[in-house]
Amino acid sequence: MGKCKHCGSETGEGELFCANCGARLEEEKPETVAAKATEEPPGGTAEKAAEAAETEEAEHEEATEPVVREAAAPKEPIQDEAGAEKKDAAEPKETAGHKGTAEPAAEDRTSGAETAEVAAEEGSAGKKKKIGSASLIALAVLGLAIGFGARTVPRNLGSPGERFLAGQFRALSKEAAVLNSAEQVFENGFSSDFQLTTELSDRQVTALTQRGLFSGPYERILRDGSEARIFIGKKFEKAVLNLELGRGDDPVLQADFFIDPDRLGFRLSKKSDKVYVTRYPEVLQELGSESRLSTSMFADLQFSKELRAATVKRYGKIVAAAINRNNLKTEKRSYRSRVLKPELKHSLEKDYTIYSWEPNAEELERLFRNIADEMEKDRALAAWYDRRQEIGEQFAKASGQHPGRSVRFEDLADRLRDNAETYANRLEDRKFTWKLVTEGSEVRAILLQLDGGDTQIFCYERDTDKGKLYRGIKVFDSVLTEKRDLEKSGYYGTVACRFSWWFRTESFALKYSNVDFKKKSVLGLPCGKYRLLPGGDEDGDGIKFEVRNEGANSLYELKNELGSFTLKATKTGTAALPTGEEENIDDELLDGTTPQRGISKFIGAL
Predict the structure, then answer these.
(1) Fewest Cβ atoms closer than 10 Å to its Cβ: which of 258, 395, 522, 599?
(2) Which DSSP helix (H) or strand (E) runs through 115?
């Protein structure tokens, strides 16, 4: 293992580019790289990466009160897609290391299923069977093992299934490093002081004056700025907010709030020196929600490292055992990009080693039954899942919904076992295939698909070309891509996202430049210049902002035709619990013929 000189991320043996920032690492000799290319699923350093991912992080003590703050922390290129498909079909297959006769590739197969509506394509004539909720449950259980399974690969083990999973885990775990960086912001709780200041343009001042808003308290808020001192507990179970709108000796509004698993309180200094407190879990229950909501639930929702490790061990073994030399095909051929070429206009134009797992119905049925048997014995995961469902029921009831009893873990296991044959036949009919595409020891694509490639359930692709990094991920019709390059002033590139659900599609693009991934701000965003483009319209001006560090502070500065807005965040915070004589307001909140009337009466009295 090594470290990237550009961003500090860990790198695996034999890697030419950093998985986090895309920078070129120390060059290897061509013959050394060629010697590493094999026709077996890439394992090698994957086992080491999986083992490193299991290393426990140091736990930090949690402060009992917010005042005592917690520490913050090259072959011929493919001419077109049609040509690619023809080339795929023409390339001879090598199964389990032996040459065979040319067969149609999985991508060329077409489904002869009956015509039905597909939820994401309703309104258009489809020629594929609907996946259905039953098959989705099976895929979800399989996805659990896909997400965690590779982490069970011990050092020096090398069955085809273990290496197949390990190579993919190694690639995806490094891509997830950015999420780990975001989690580190709250790793030890979060405490910071935010100061927002504005400088409006003459045009905006004139517009606000004509509307009668740029006067009195509004003017003071804009002129003097506002401040928010924030503390958030490690498990989100408690929080404190000290707020000043219009800073100075006589702020427009000065308010302090706190919440913990048992109480919620506030003080409005300009109204009273008293701290008004309510036992909100009991009050909400008595108001008729039939639910006892508390911030302690947030801690129960967290998936602990210990439980994650146990889940990994259980289900990874099962999936790895289902993949063997008899059902894992190996081919040397081209690969048609599903994400990079359509989204970033970048083609994967080389010959790759492609591993394809296309299990038959019998193998899938056995896998589902084995998973169901393991789920039946998995008391720890069942306890977490069922508690999660109970919390969902509580929030649903509190919001006025009555979903009834939610599905329990044992119900999932029973449903998977009882319908294993149906699910397996349906997936075989839809030609479920799981592919791993490699170039030497580098993972270039991971693909789960149906209908001979016409339907992608999941697709991940990554490539580097002339110092540029291309990567993308697609889950059904939702896509996230990035193109990144390096210049003397730092990294620049574009992150684009498109979310699709039901009949709606939302998209945006984030262009960045002069980014230094070593320099993280208080909120975790690297220092640099950014331009947010709602709708993904690259011709528009978008919203421009800059992130930089100045001493112990991080500055987020946004500028447009309306003026400038600067947010300063400190690396340590000073949020404090409100002090003063406490007064319980449970009775006031419960007063009135309806809860809303009682609350309105109390707020009006203040």
Answers:
(1) 395
(2) none
Which tokens sit at 497? 């996202």
Is 172:151 a contact under the CB 8 Å cutoff? no
User: Token digits for 589?
Assistant: 């909140």
Separation between Cα atoms, residue 251 and residue 254, nearest integer Å: 6
pLDDT at 127: 41
Asked if 536 and 508 count as a contact pair (C-beta separation under 8 A), the reply is yes
Q: Determine the straight-line distance between the first and last CA of the chain, rounded to whole angstroms.
A: 62
Q: Which of 322, 315, 364, 4 is nearest to 159 (CA)?
A: 322
Residue in the block written with tokens 């490790």: 309
Give the C-alpha separation, 31 to 306, whole Å: 42
Helix or strand or coil: residue 128? coil
CA distances from residue 447 to 106, 379, 500 in whole angstroms, order as listed: 12, 32, 19
H/E element holding 436?
strand 433-439
User: Which two structure tokens, joined as six digits, stand for 294?
Assistant: 């508390």
> Could you give the dihedral angle defined by the CA atoms of residues 509, 512, 515 and 521, in that order, rounded to the nearest 10 degrees?
-60
Q: Which one-letter amino acid corresponds to residue 113?
A: A
According to the model, what pLDDT value does residue 7 have? 66
Q: What is the dihedral of CA 382, 383, 384, 385, to 10 degrees?
A: 40
561-578 average pLDDT score: 91
Instruction: At 560, list the tokens.
Output: 């447009």
Percent of the chain with pLDDT over 70: 70
Q: Sign of dihedral through CA atoms 88, 91, 97, 99?
A: positive
CA-only gyration radius of the chain, Å:
28
Q: Work out the number of other CB atoms within 10 angstroms of the CB of residue 387.
A: 13
| pLDDT > 70? residue 155 | no
Q: E-assigned strands of 246-373?
A: 253-259, 264-268, 275-278, 328-333, 352-357
Those residues whose C-beta lies under 8 Å from the C-beta of residue 411, and which sit 6 or more positions away, are none
